[in-house]
Amino acid sequence: MDPFEVEGDSRKSNKPKYSKFTQQELPACKPLLTPGIVVSAFSLIGILFVPIGLASLSASQEIVELIDRYDTSCVPMTDKVGFIQNSKTDKTCTRTLTVPKQMKSPIYVYYQIGDFYQNHRRYVKSRSDKQLRYKEAAGLTKNCEPEGNSADGAPIIPCGLIAWSLFNDTYTISVNKKAIEVNKKGIAWQSDKNNKFGSDVYPSNFQKGNIIGGAKLNESIPLSEQEDLIVWMRTAALPTFRKLYGRIEADIMANDQLTVVIQNNYNTYSFGGSKVLVLSTTSWIGGKNNFIGVAYLTIGGLCLFLAVGFIVLYMFKPRALGDPSYLSWNRDILD
Amino acid sequence: MAEDHHGSSRHMSASQKDLGDEDARVVRVGDAERTSERLEYAGNAVRTAKYSPLTFLPRNLFEQFHRLAYVYFLVIAVLNQLPQLAVFGRGASVMPLAFVLIVTAVKDAYEDWRRHRSDRAENGRLAAVLSPGEGAGAQFRPTEWKHVRVGDVLRIVSNESLPADMVLLATSEPTGVAYVQTLNLDGESNLKTRYAKQETLSTPPDQLTGAVIRCERPNRNVYGFQANLELEGESRRIPLGPSNIVLRGCELKNTAWAVGVVVYAGRETKAMLNNAGAPKKRSRLETHMNRETLFLSAILVVLCALVAALSGVWLRTHEEELELAQFFHKRDYLSKDKDGNYNYYGIAAQIVFIFLMAVIVFQIMIPISLYISMELVRLGQAYFMIRDTRLYDESSNTRFQCRALNINEDLGQVKCVFSDKTGTLTQNKMEFRCASIDGIDYSDITRQQPVEGDRIWAPNISVNTDSELVKLIRDGGDTYQGRHTREFFLALATCNTIVPMITDGADPKKKVIDYQGESPDEQALVSAAAAYGFVLVERTSGHIVIDVLGEKQRYEVLGLHEFDSDRKRMSVIIGCPDKTVMLFVKGADSSMFGVIDKTINSDLVQATEKHLHSYSSLGLRTLVIGMRELSQAEFQEWQMAYEKASTALLGRGNLLRGVAANIERNLRLLGASGIEDKLQDGVPEAIEKLRQAGIKVWVLTGDKQETAISIGYSCKLLTREMTQIVINSHSRDSCTKSLDDAISMVDKFQSFSTDSQARVPLALIIDGNSLVYIFDTDREEKLFEVAIACDVVLCCRVAPLQKAGIVDLIKKRTSDMTLAIGDGANDVSMIQMADVGIGISGQEGRQAVMASDFAMGQFRFLVPLLLVHGHWNYQRMGYMILYNFYRNATFVFMLFWYVLYTGFTLTTAITEWSSVLYSVIYTAVPTIVVAILDKDLGRRTLLKYPQLYGAGQCEENYNLRLFIFIMMDSVWQSLAIFFIPYLAYRKSVIDGASLGDLWTLSVVILVNIHLAMDVIRWNWITHAAIWGSIVATWICVMIIDSIPIMPGFWAIYKVMGTGLFWALLLAVTVAGMIPHFAAKAFKEYFTPSDIQIAREMEKWQDTHDVTHPEVQMSTVVRV
What we know:
The structure holds two protein chains of two kinds.
Chain A: H1 35-62, E1 65-69, H2 80-85, E2 92-98, E3 107-114, H3 121-124, H4 129-133, H5 161-164, E4 170-175, E5 178-179, H6 190-196, H7 227-233, E6 241-248, E7 257-263, E8 274-280, H8 291-316, H9 328-334
Antiparallel strand pairs in A: 1-8, 2-7, 3-6, 3-8, 4-5, 4-7
Helix pairs in contact in A: 1-8
Chain B: H1 2-13, E1 25-28, H2 32-38, H3 56-64, H4 68-81, H5 90-123, E2 126-131, E3 139-144, E4 153-157, E5 165-171, E6 177-181, H6 183-186, E7 191-195, H7 198-201, E8 212-215, E9 227-230, E10 237-240, E11 245-246, E12 251-253, E13 257-264, H8 270-273, H9 284-317, H10 346-361, H11 368-387, E14 401-402, E15 414-420, E16 426-437, E17 440-442, E18 448-449, E19 457-459, E20 465-466, H12 467-475, H13 480-494, E21 499-504, E22 511-516, H14 520-531, E23 534-539, E24 543-548, E25 551-564, E26 569-575, E27 581-587, H15 589-595, H16 602-617, E28 620-630, H17 632-647, H18 652-663, E29 668-679, H19 683-692, E30 696-700, H20 705-714, E31 723-727, H21 732-755, E32 762-767, H22 768-776, H23 780-789, E33 792-796, H24 800-813, E34 817-822, H25 828-833, E35 836-840, H26 847-851, E36 854-856, H27 862-899, H28 912-922, H29 924-933, H30 939-944, H31 950-953, H32 960-985, H33 992-1014, H34 1020-1040, H35 1051-1056, H36 1059-1086, H37 1090-1101, H38 1109-1113
Parallel strand pairs in B: 15-30, 15-34, 19-22, 30-33, 31-32, 32-33, 34-35, 35-36
Antiparallel strand pairs in B: 1-8, 2-3, 2-4, 4-13, 5-11, 5-13, 6-7, 6-12, 8-9, 9-10, 14-36, 16-17, 16-29, 18-20, 21-22, 23-24, 24-25, 25-26, 26-27, 27-28, 28-29
Helix pairs in contact in B: 3-5, 4-5, 4-10, 5-28, 9-10, 9-27, 11-27, 11-29, 12-13, 13-14, 16-20, 17-18, 21-23, 27-29, 27-32, 27-33, 28-34, 29-34, 32-33, 32-36, 33-34, 33-36
């Protein structure tokens, strides 16, 4: 303390002013966990959760999902990596599927890659968002190494591992031998197309290195229109993921024969990944997934059980709330 | 109280060495140039500011980094700058540390700016300095304070502050007296008298040039000063003492002017040397917190090691694939070197990197924001304590003061209170009650009445008089008894150091006398003498004037032996108007009976002793008064010895004591006085409450045993049913014996108490002498055993250092929180020794307050302070620390689970900005608000059931068990937050940013609802903070996702459009909260704590405060 700080006028009262705030007496409510509240909270949650669980289970059940893992069947048994790396070989592969239930339009076509760590740190960081958006930022490739600049030092657009590893299998689908269009427009987020990928940024020097990671890009189309790239660049959260390939805007009947001609270009063999083609309808819970329904039913059931459990406990060991005789010093006297 | 006060100043001066010539400071009066020629003495510019604009940054940072936690975060921020370890971007990685550092730095800078401003104002003040004049002679010219130098001669006028420590040379008073107020120095508002030496008094200041003062080196002893003055052309050295120096910061009062020479300036002044802050203490909770921080560090290391090891395994099993896997791209195909790897240094190096990166990612396991939160919370708690109207003392117009800001929560855990008696339990407003004069007891209260009749002199303290005594004085004439009685009151009026200040009262015929003095006892005695017609009306250094029954008489003060705690008495030698020389002595009975000639009248001595005993049983403070007429030879012999001693440079104090002891003997007993020191308001009730709260109250006093015991009874510390163990020994052996007896007695009672229900309460009464023996002979252990078994301990006749020793006795041997409360300089050591030191800002100055952690006006405030504020502070702080640990751990565990699904590469789905803002913005405000505002119980309940204080004493709100429980909760909640969305989104198109946003929101909602569930009192601020935080987080996430160059652009808007997002948010919240809610409901109903029951009682009794609880509890499911 400063010893010379002038002390307040001693005649003036130092008495603190009274206010509910300074005296810590603000009006407040003091909720207590009375048996009634506890039981009703648990019951309420139970009553709320069980129907939601049932609803999402039924929603999940209604979704028709066609899954076909093709990576193992579309390559020879030996030297898979050599096969896939050879750019000369014909990698066409035909798969035939039967639709179990009627699928209503729109039907989403996904590719699902297994054990591909799109969330690997090396991978996730290997991109330049500024370069994707601004023409002037073409040279900002620092984070993209070693896929940042071509051998002669020119910046690669789009740079980085993510773009470099762009998925390049293609699917041609026909229903009952009749070709059906897979609409590849509008598969990317509109926000990405409008604001994240520049409409004046064109691919250059892409996929020109010694080793090819995946698809090549048409250098005359701006990035904002390269929807496959945009979808791919939105890196998946988990090691096994799906990405939207396209939409079929027609219904497919039950027991229809689906023929898919696959150009099996993408190398998942070198790291033991898998490739799966998925056709699925959709509902409010997204894709087919029973988990959320089960989870809701479990939580709801548990809460109902706890509600009953507490009722039983409260009946067997009742205690009057706020009874001073339970205070420890009063109990000592009673004992 | 006077004796202790003097005692402590003697203790302080003991540290200073006797003045030798070689280490003396030589000051040439009026010649600052030559004074500083050889040795550079400090100038008068003061600097209380810590920093200058240039040094601010380095010094402030240096001070801040004394906190180990900050170093930890700095190391992490530095690690993050290495390219291989860059987890966060530059900005994000340094933000939390920078935020904390900047907040603290701004706070420090503001405080320092204020200090700079006051320094500038202080240094720029003007003082009149004597400057050797050209031609017209020397003149006093106004000079800025900062240019005043040692050796300058200054002239100060009335009401002016002193710019430096100066030796007085002359004053406007012909006697050389000057009055100073030391309010700024020690807070004592009474006037102190200082004297200029007769030798310099009449010399004009400019002719003193050439005189030399030799004084001791600068030291911080405010009450000591040793120097001598050598006038030019004279070989005689004039002694200078504490009464000749006036100190910087004091104000000259009631004296037109004073001239002095500067001896210490600037930072070497005593005021500045004493300007050290309160000692740093650390709260118990913070010490415990460090233990848990270590646990958390261990968890952190385990997590990091686990990730590092797993990543090693992963790399090993995938070693062959890494080269071609698109997501790893081990080789740099573009480099000239064909085998060149890109950013890959082999598995071993990778493991080390991963480990360090893991530390960076999981760093907030150690909550950085906790430190700053704690500071803010303590600030808030201090604000409420200061603003509490119930801690405001009307009589002294003082608020509660928080001087130490880091031990608020210790107030909730006190187990042992050490209290001073005088001024703490009592008011230290002394009132003369009764006297025993010449063996006759005048203590009949019924005879006493206010002073009647018209008096010219009206002392400011009115004393009731005994009518018989008044008659005896007036009409006693020349009887033996009448003469003795008059001598008794003459002694009271003369034998003191009181200065009367006379002012005109409302009635023009009356003069009001304000008796100014350092001892309240003396004020009471002089006022009593005045009431009986012996009015002290004037004091100078050489004489006093006493109005004896309407007739002014002048008495020469020939000598004065000041009070010291060895002699425990003081004496004056007075030259009476009739040319006789009298010695008056007053002092404590123990010391006085040793110097009284008992052969003169042994009946008188016996009667007086009896009266003394009865007075002290009434709780009165007693003094014995004696006198002797000195023969001319005796007087001259004394005078020579006195002069020799008082000019000695070596051992002056001892020599003077020797002279005093030599003359103070063979006294004739005049009588004894009884002075009442009234109990403060509410002391018995306060002690009773503290006792009920399970707090032991020890009283440590300098008073006699009888006085202490009677005060003990009157303040309900001692009760009739208590068994008293008295240790009161005069020798080492008897002390050992009584201690052994005490132990066997304690054992007996303890074995006895196991059989029967009612335990016999024990009280230990021990005196200072015995304590000396005990502390000397390593019997502390035994004393401790006895003391701890007793309900009450009363230590009487203890010296200041012994007080600290007693506190230390308990502090060393138990983990009990100790609190010391006192008001005087004698309590300083005790206050500093105890875990919590409280100063009473009362009558005895401010030294206790300056040394204390908290200061307040009344002892009884201890009850609301401990039982209410202490309880709240502890409960709030304990919960806040636990909550902060839980909150950050939940986040870290959640990150950890995700890392297991990223190839152990420490990717976070949550954006780095959200990671950084999590503990700083998303969740910081509610915990601070709750820790400042939440109350588990109302004030009324806490005061009604003091036993509830036990929660803090047993560490109910913060302990290892609670820590483990909350950590388990944190693991469960992190599992719910991670795995429910994980399982729902497995094999789906979900992108990292969307899932990250979901996790960010879930964890923030969950930890805030956890807090909401533990909040006890909801007011609008709490609501705003908790729900506002969730909204703020949501907004922040939206803002981050609106930046196009962030990878996760627009994710939150996309994901909020899906039903699954909302379903998952609800499921996570409910699943996460079920265990906490169920456990809380179970615990509160089936194994309720006292606090829980009290809460229920409060709820049912407090009808007007009840709202519908259902509304609140439904918040759990409201999201």
